[in-house]
Amino acid sequence: MASQSIPVRVVTAETVAKNIRAYTLAREDGETLPAFGAGAHIDVLTDNGLTRQYSLCGDPTNTQEYKIAVQLEEQGRGGSSWIHANIHTASEIQINPPRNHFELDESADHYLLIAGGIGITPIMLMAQRLQALGKNFSFYYLARSHEHAAFAEQLRNTFGERLHCYFSDAVDERLNIAELFAQQSEVTEIYTCGSEHLLQAILDAAEPHPNLTVHFERFAAVEQDNSDNTSFEIELARSGKVLTVSPDQTILEVLRGEGFTVETMCEEGLCGSCEVDLLSGEADHRDSVLNEAEKAEQSVLMVCCSRAVSPRLKLDI
Ligand code: FES
């Protein structure tokens, strides 16, 4: 089933950094918007048929408005350039309700937050939440330059000394991630969002430290090597039907071929909208939505990209 989209009006549209515009959205009928927590995103449905996910970065206690920030991706797939060119104050657009695959575990004692570029949007809400909870955290914001750093002034005012900004155009302002991680003596949860390069550096630097757990959100799908793909079967539990997924097909394609409607947004393992319950069998998870523990649980899978380790997967369809 597809989510019920929500018609919203753009209340404000403003440039908040070089190539980044922020949009405040409110329901056209004046009703309240669904609640959300730090790390949540919404889908923006563009008139040219694209669906793009953007983290919510406004105040979660304000149920009248959502705020998103969109970075223009010159080499992107067209979503951000369409939004920058076509969405203005008073524009009317459709969104899907918030979903959260990057939830903040509020039970820990120590946190490190690391945002790269536009990855600041989910991380800034996490910082606000941790501050409200009185948690022990440090907040690092890496950007190409001052002019590329969205919300930097607002964040400085809110977090003061807790916020450490690093700009790559300044010769002496590089964050030494390995050194930072080596200094952590406590069990620490690291939340990060940024480029694949930054994420990989963080994962590599954290690996020797068992007291550090990295939670992350990706902007782009991880490239997959499909050369070793093999066939496998899917069993549809509600009908008992068994279908074969060939090496060059996805489960999603096979389901669609049988006339099933599966909700999808990104179709590359990033958004989580195509999640299906896995009743038995072992999936080869290829998405960037589930964390390692969730993948090991083998209770759900993303049918747009995941395959099978076992010969058959039984799906709750
Ligand atoms: S459609 Fe986005 S994860 Fe499958």
TrEMBL record:
Residues annotated as domain 2Fe-2S ferredoxin-type: 232-317
Keyword S-adenosyl-L-methionine tagged: no
Swiss-Prot/TrEMBL keywords: 2Fe-2S, Flavoprotein, FMN, Iron, Iron-sulfur, Metal-binding, Oxidoreductase
Pfam family, one: Fer2
Co-factor(s): FMN
Domain FAD-binding FR-type: 3-105
Origin: domain of life: Bacteria
UniProt keyword Iron-sulfur present: yes
One term of GO molecular function: 2 iron, 2 sulfur cluster binding
PANTHER family: CARNITINE MONOOXYGENASE REDUCTASE SUBUNIT (PTHR47354:SF1), NADH OXIDOREDUCTASE HCR (PTHR47354)
Name assigned to this protein: Oxidoreductase
Organism: Neptunomonas marina
High-level lineage: Bacteria, Pseudomonadati, Pseudomonadota, Gammaproteobacteria, Oceanospirillales
